[in-house]
Design a protein that fits this description.
Strand content: 5-15%
Oligomer: single chain
Distance between the termini: 23 Å
Strand order of the largest sheet: 4-1-5
Number of strands: 5
CATH superfamily of the largest domain: SecY subunit domain
Mean pLDDT: 76
Structural class: mainly alpha
């Protein structure tokens, strides 16, 4: 560990890139504490403390939502835009063809993703302001609310989201981790000091057992995340020998790695976005004059507050999105075609459609283990809450999964940078 750290500090470019990323994350954390003008911060904090749904959203915004900061939406609109274009790429032939045009196609789709982020941020900012204004007990959050306050708040919040998107792309350019993932990671980690402080000041002997249980669960979850994230099945691949003139080429054997968790933490982020949508919208209709609409909104909120229903839907969505996202990023037909073009084949499997079908069956079985693990990690805090009778770690498993996965990805990219420099020196 110390040897690796010493290597990093000796390489000037790598050291500068790491410091650059740390500075960017510090700037983001400062921005998370700059409130939008015209908001009563104290009234807002008290409201978030009493609302479990908004508390969940606040954790994933790194506390920016609780402060009603200029980056209160986090990178949510950008993630939503990315999801939309990933879905469109699967169903729109022209987009699918564009995605196959290499760097030009990727840049074009990324540009459209950025453009769509702007209207999505505007809609989400307006929905959040409307939600806070119409929720019970929040009359003092906007003491002097008017049209100008609404417009300026929406513009400020939208600009904050675009600022985060820009910072994320700047971080990604350093090739030391995904910028968007690192921003989410920083937001989650930033909430740890306040959680630990509350645990220490509210400590009692009755809570000691719960703290031990949470510590054990956290340790087991971290170990499980590392094993599953690094786990892969190696499919043997052989390359046919080719004779060119008086020389023979090829004949090598290698393997095709298929990761247990191809989708990473994306399924959980997708599932959270979907599962928070119905109760959030229902909050807007609690005080309408039409009785049946208000009753339906109240019923939806109560339904999602049912821990059994919430946990079951959460688990199912995570499993479904794991299979879905893997299908988006892994194409057996394309892999089979590439192997055939390069003269490679899987021993005992005929090239072409047979290879694609074989890979499809393998990835389906591997996906089952990865999907079950992600689903279990997602609902583990809910199960723990039922056993211990406390709600302190509602999203603990999800947070740990994101944090550990981002750390592993970043460490792997740093190791790749070190290996590349060692190769260049040789």
């Amino acid at each position: 560990m110390l040897n690796k750290l010493s290597q990093i500090l000796k390489i000037k470019d790598l050291r500068k890139n790491i410091l650059y990323i740390l500075v960017m994350l510090v700037i983001v954390r400062i921005a998370a504490h700059i409130p939008v003008p015209g908001v009563n911060a104290e009234g807002l904090k008290s409201f978030f403390n009493g609302n479990q749904l908004l508390g969940l959203m606040n954790i994933f915004s790194g506390g920016g939502m609780e402060n009603f900061s200029i980056i209160m939406l986090g990178v949510g609109p950008y993630i939503t835009s990315s999801i939309i274009f990933q879905l469109l790429t699967m169903v729109v032939p022209s987009l699918e063809e564009l995605s196959k045009e290499g760097e030009y196609g990727r840049n074009k789709i990324n540009q459209w993703t950025r453009w769509l982020t702007v209207p999505l941020a505007i809609l989400q900012a307006f929905a959040m302001i409307t939600l806070l204004r119409h929720s019970a007990g929040t009359a003092n959050i906007f003491p002097n609310f008017n049209s100008w306050t609404l417009i300026s708040a929406i513009i400020t919040i939208t600009a904050g989201t675009i600022f985060l998107m820009w910072i994320g792309e700047l971080i990604s350019e350093k090739n030391l981790g995904n910028g968007i993932s690192l921003l989410i990671f920083a937001g989650i980690v930033s909430s740890l000091p306040s959680v630990l402080t509350r645990s220490v000041f509210n400590y009692s002997q009755a809570e000691f057992i719960n703290m031990v249980v949470f510590a054990v669960i956290a340790l087991v979850t971290i170990i499980g995340v590392v094993i599953v994230t690094e786990g892969q099945r190696n499919i043997p691949v052989s390359y046919a020998r080719q004779v060119r003139g008086n020389k023979m080429y090829g004949g090598a054997s290698t393997h095709l790695p298929l990761r247990v968790n191809q989708a990473g933490v994306i399924p959980i982020i997708f599932a959270i976005s979907i599962i928070l949508f119905p109760p959030t919208i229902a909050q807007l209709f609690l005080k309408v004059n039409t009785a049946w609409i208000a009753s339906a909104a109240q019923w939806i909120i109560q339904l999602f507050q049912n821990q059994l229903f919430y946990g079951a839907i959460y688990f199912i969505l995570v499993v479904v999105f794991t299979y879905f996202y893997t299908a988006v990023i892994f194409h057996p037909d394309q892999v089979s075609e590439n192997l055939q073009k390069q003269g490679g084949f899987i021993p005992g499997i005929r090239p072409g459609k047979s290879t694609a079908e074989y890979l499809r069956n393998i990835i389906s079985r591997i996906n089952f283990s990865g999907a079950m693990f992600l689903g279990l990690v997602a609902v583990l805090p809910l199960i723990t809450a039922q056993v211990t009778g406390t709600q302190n770690l509602v999203v603990g498993g999800t947070s740990l999964l994101i944090v550990v996965s981002v750390v592993i990805e970043t460490v792997n990219q740093i190791n790749a940078q070190l290996a590349m420099r060692d190769y260049e020196e040789i």
